[in-house]
Amino acid sequence: MKEDLLTRTIIGLAIDVHTALGPGLLENAYKECLFYKINKAGFQVEKKK
User: What Rg do the C-alpha atoms of the chain give, in angstroms?
Assistant: First the structure.
């Protein structure tokens, strides 16, 4: 996958999460939801390294 397509995909998922949850939550809430969405989209990610 090209880097620009990967970037657009991840940013799109992050926008989806923020739109669904709204502003004002702790970072950890967004992180967990984004982690779930990225995994569901078929990417393998690590939370912390």
Answer: 11
Q: What is the pLDDT along the chain (49 residues), one digit of tens a residue?
A: 788 899 999 999 999 999 999 999 999 999 999 999 999 999 999 988 7
How far from chain centre, in Å, is Cα 16? 8
The torsion of the CA quartet 29, 33, 39, 45, rounded to 10 degrees, works out to -30
* CA–CA dist 32, 37 (Å, integer): 9
pTM of the prediction? Answer: 0.84
